[in-house]
Amino acid sequence: MRKILLSVFAFAGVSATSFGQIDTLSEFFTGTPAVYQVDAVAPLDSGFVFGNNAFGDVAKIMKFDATTGLSGSGTIKSVLVGIRAKVDMGGSIKVKVWEFSSTTALGAELGSITVPLAQIDTNIAAYALAGGAPRIYNVAVNFPTAITMPASGAFLVGVELPSNSTGAIAMISNSFGDFAAATTNSFELWSDNTLHTVPASWGAGATAALAIFPVVNYTVGIDELNMTSSIYPNPATNEVNFNLNGVQMSNIKVYGLDGKMILDNELNSTSGQINVASLNNGMYICEITSQNGNVVKSTFVKK
Q: What pTM was estimated for this model as a whole?
């Protein structure tokens, strides 16, 4: 059954300062942020294209491959998501990663994190930019163990919606017409657990990408493999420790999501520690340089 879109609410109000978060897949998201409302079945105003609606959609999903900025193998550390509105009745969302199988069925689930609706702040002040305007997000999840990208070179990242009895959300997309690759990279999971592309579901003009931005670490060599999983505790309150499993470090730099360097520590050891007690709560990017010049980027959360 093809769905029908009747109305749209534009999204504005976030300043357009740019980020320097170079390992976030976000360049595919261009144009104008929007939230599309469904008015297709009685009662009118019956939900959102990219969110809860009267059709009972289960999840909204993006495919990541060369089309959406993936350019190597490695791990998925975090995911940033833009959610414009919510109704909280005690429910939650799940941010999930799957192996890409086909355009009609999900592959194996690789990892997920549950986020209670109570923790999602939809106030304008809570939004940030993942790589510059218009890449808006207000939800950041950090996987406790990095997810290895599938050997196929493609994976899916999506948001499993709350049940209609426990709440509802409306996700941010760019405007219809802003993402020509929607026919191969924008998906939704229907109530019968079948996978469908967004244009096939809502009509050929529904060419939009969702505000879902994976943070990845590309694997270059043995140093990167060792350093990727060596940051703890994560989330951190006072200190963050680094243990590089025998690889000599030379430098650790920490950046905020605005691209500004916050910490720059010289080291000459295989392990180290930085004090993060004075940092504001949120996600940070860590850049570690080994003695032989290899560089790996990762993330941690200060709480």
A: 0.71
